[in-house]
Amino acid sequence: MSDVYKLPVSSYDELIKIIKVYGSGKVGVPMSLDDLVKSSGMSKTIISKNNGFLVQLGLISEGNKKAPSDICKKLANAYSMNLQEQIVIIWREIINQDEFITKMISVIGIKGKLSKNEYINHIVFSSNCGSGAGYKAGAATIIEILKTINAVSEYDGNIMMGDTDTTTNNGNISDVSNNQIDENNNKTKIETLPTPIESVDTTFFVQQYTCESGKIAKFIIPEDATEDDLLGFRDILSITLKRKFKLKLDD
Which of 70, 165, 209, 215 is the most buried (most CB within 10 A)? Predict the structure, then answer.
């Protein structure tokens, strides 16, 4: 049986509420489910059904009693203080470490666009969780997270790629204080490493580069591309440089 990726089962707003409740505790200190229920006003069932997803993202620890991680604390604080820039930075940091979600982003990169319903069904199917309504709600929540960081965008019922690289490019999350989140991080570009992604037909590597204009250039290369193929791609770029910028390049 394929690995199961545990999807959330709540709406985006409900999931953020759970994250904020966990983040109200001390980093590394386990919190009982009863305490979480009292603080959030949510049912034990709702909280516990979302725990698997939060564990996968590294926001809380495993075990009967879950403890918030440092990154959970920072994300919860960012939401509590409505620091949108920091929310984006932290989510990107989390998502860059999650193989399943990065693959789901890459699906849109390959397809160009999918209807929201198709994308939800694809996420649920790929997770191997099952076909319950709660998982569809969770898939929709993942889409909302991706929209928050502009990894994808939604227009007229369709999901397509956003216009911002999903790599963390606004500073190091470890520099974000738990109590006072700095809104003026120095911006640095971090190159996206090629990520292998699976499609129905073959496997691709996607290389993204953030242009000075802020737009994203994407190179989608089949995994079975030969050395001659890659040299051919290089020649195409060389021709573009020569024609557009009149650059003299060594052959």
Answer: 165
